[in-house]
Design brief:
Shape: extended
Low-confidence stretches: 1-12, 71-83, 240-250, 341-347
Distance between the termini: 125 Å
Radius of gyration: 35 Å
Number of strands: 13
Oligomer: single chain
Structural class: alpha/beta
Largest sheet: 11 strands, mixed
Amino acid sequence: MNLNNKNYYIKLPTHEPETLPKIINYYSLKYQEEKIISVIKRDLIIFNIIISLIIIILVVFASIKLTNRKEKKKNIFRPITYEQIFQKKIYEKYIISCINGELLNKPNLTNVLNPKISIIITVYNKEKYILRILRSIQNQNFDEIEIIFADDSSEDNSINIIEEQQKYDSRIKLLKHNKNVGTLINRNDGAKKAKGEYLIFIDCDDLLLNNILNVTYKKAKSEDLDIVQFRAYWGKNLVNCYKYEVYGYKHNTTILYQPDLSNLMYYEYPDKILQTEYNLWGKLIKRTVFMAILEEIDKYYLEQHMTLHEDGMLIFILFKIAKSYLYLDEFGMFYSRNNDSTLSGLRNDNNVDKTVRDSFLYLKFMFEYTGQNRKEKDMAVYQFKFILQQFENIFNKICTGFDFIYDIIIMYLNCDYIEAEDKEIIRKIMYNFEKHEKEIQTNKCIK
């Protein structure tokens, strides 16, 4: 091969020794710079991941703490747990037999003149539920009872069904009203007719669970208790009930005496959490104590044909005059939320005036019967604001009762315990009332 051929001759630059180190140094610096940037990016990613994990952990921890705090303070409608599902399965056969109207055993009728418990069932056009509730009582393992159906002038076949059942069970009593008197008077008249040492109030569309009469009565007698409160499943379907209500926010299973018992009716501070429910059902109550309630409440309220919030008035007085109380951690009934219930009927458009009037009657009662100290009066104020908030969307449907509503609102506005911000909201609602009333009067004039 000819190496001198000019086609293979490469002439190197004369400054080669100086240029190569610069090129090497340049690329070395560039590599180091890229490496540093890569390291910084990696560190930033790791840092962001760590910060994000810390934030997530803190948020989860805070959520758990907040949830636990709320569960302790406000125990309303928890989803049913596996333990309760299993417990409900124990009742399932019993419930189905009641729904089917089956009489599981022949009751002992030897001591019907001196019953230990009187069960008062309010009835108004509930023919399809009568046999079910009756069987849930007759199938109990406790026979020394009387069953009082207090009928509020039903227009369906309810009375005929009850009278037919009386032929087979002498413990069944029927109290008939010739005209509609409302839940409060109907229930109270049933209590006046009762002879039992203790009372249980239940609506016709609810259902008692087996053994609850025996358990509550034995506990009440052994401890000489005025009130024994038990738990209830809550839902629309008795067999597949998916929620339950737990009575007694504090879950205090020790016996309470006065003044601790009376304090259950007031809100805890500073969270304003009510410590018990204003429901008459779900309680075994000594009859003499319940009858004392009727002596404490002004006849004005007893004669108002109330069908909403009437429980609240009775329970408020009950917890003030009762001497002893026990929250029993035992399921005793299903509380049915049916579309044809009294409460559902009251809240339809045709009964708005009645719904609002009953609510404001209750607010009037609470204002007059709570004491003048901050803790008691603030409870009435809190419920006042709650009812205003709940009913604000139906106020424009009211046609009557404006003067009565104005009087109650002014009564609360003059209370020292309402904050200025709340007063402005209340005044705005009152202004809307007045505006709505003027519109109604104008429409009447036009007609």
